[in-house]
Amino acid sequence: MAAGAETFSLREVLVAFTACVSEQREVRVDPYLAGWKGLVRFLNCLGTIFSFISKDAVTKIEIIENYRNSDQREKYLTVQSMVEYELANGLVDLQQRSKHPNSGCRTFLRLHRALHWLQMFLEGLRTGEDNSKTSVICSETYNASLANYHPWIIRKAAGVAFCALPTRNTFLETMNVGTAEEAVTMLGDALPYICEVYKITEELYAQHKLLDLP
Ligand code: 1PZ
Fold this sequence. Notes:
The protein is built from nine helices and no strands. By secondary structure, it is an all-alpha fold. This is Ceramide-1-phosphate transfer protein.
């Protein structure tokens, strides 16, 4: 098991997502990234076969973190302020990646699409039968969401990696939130928050026609 894995609990990840939505219904960037960082740590505990996935997630997290550490950090406080700032200043490549290949908007969109998968995957785990296969839940939800944005070679590699996933109950126990039943309860409590974060971002991106950013 990776160092620190014994103290790691998926509860912290879910708590981070519950802290994302502000009173003004804006999505705060810092807890969003904290949630993703926790997911990456969790993914790393599942084995090196997933490292091509976690590496990409880390790259994206770091791009946005760099904006949060730059002189413009205040503009990246929420997804709403980021979209407003980048669009108003022509910092987003709308047709093809060229001058601004790593805009906050296009990078965040990749995590946002992955959050849709996560939402469906965790819901599938939560409602699945005791003996159901995590790999099946994972590939079904992946095919219904993120796969649509990935080229064949990545879909293939993802499919191979999914086969390494343990059974549902073992997977729920790996979350380190207690028994499988306790993990299911926690998922039920946390998922509405993740759905809300996803929904607000989706509406914002749709409103600004940013859902297909290259
Ligand atoms: C529990 C099992 C984990 C399954 C994870 C399912 C998601 C599979 C995603 C495979 C992504 C592989 C690597 C790179 C993909 C990139 O090309 C894309 C698009 O970025 P671009 O090329 O446009 O810059 N990246 C993404 O779609 C972001 C993927 C982030 C995935 C994070 C998963 C975290 C999982 C947590 C598990 C609890």
